[in-house]
């Protein structure tokens, strides 16, 4: 969770205030997400094949508790929507390998998911009530013979109720601040 004094927090707060006031200023295709958007359909198809599951990947979840709290997980297992997953498409094999090793080293703990993705994964569990979430590392790239290689690895990340409680509290504080700045509180 970004601290209120950071530029990232302040920029996001500004965007939310504008949205509350009816502005449509949301960056739909940021440059940093381009690689993931390009490869995510292939990653999801590979995931379905490797783990013999069917998934829904065009999902938008809205909290039953707060209508302003929502998320868009990368996938939910069909037909029962009883498991979900977050896919990270790695541009470099060394990054895929690094995060796969971290996942294996911390298997069964919340640290199997990198800190930079932990809130996203726990947030989806907050919305769904699930007790775990699949964290999926994906890589596609050149192999040594000049062809393509595809790598997929997943690890179950357990729910962290303490973190989820903190996130919920911070989300409420953030939205109250946004409503106040927009003059709607």
Helix/strand layout:
Layout: H1 7-20, H2 34-51, E1 54-56, E2 61-62, E3 70-71, E4 75-78, E5 84-90, H3 93-105, H4 115-128, E6 132-142, E7 148-158, H5 161-181
Parallel strand pairs: 5-6
Antiparallel strand pairs: 1-4, 2-3, 4-5, 6-7
Helix pairs in contact: 1-5, 4-5
Describe this entry's structure for a reader.
There is one protein chain. This protein has 185 residues and is α+β, with helices and mostly antiparallel strands. The protein has one domain: Lambda Exonuclease, Chain A (Alpha-Beta Complex). Helix content is 43%, strand content 22%. The protein has five helices and seven strands. The protein has helices at residues 7-20, 34-51, 93-105, 115-128, 161-181; strands spanning 54-56, 61-62, 70-71, 75-78, 84-90, 132-142, 148-158. The strands form two sheets. Strands 1-4-5-6-7 form a five-stranded mixed sheet, sandwiched between helices. A two-stranded antiparallel ribbon has the order 2-3. A hairpin with a 5-residue loop joins strand 6 (132-142) and strand 7 (148-158). Helix 1 packs across helix 5 and helix 4 (115-128) crosses helix 5 (161-181). The longest helix has 21 residues, at 161-181.
Nutshell version of this structure?
The protein is of the alpha+beta class and 185 residues long.
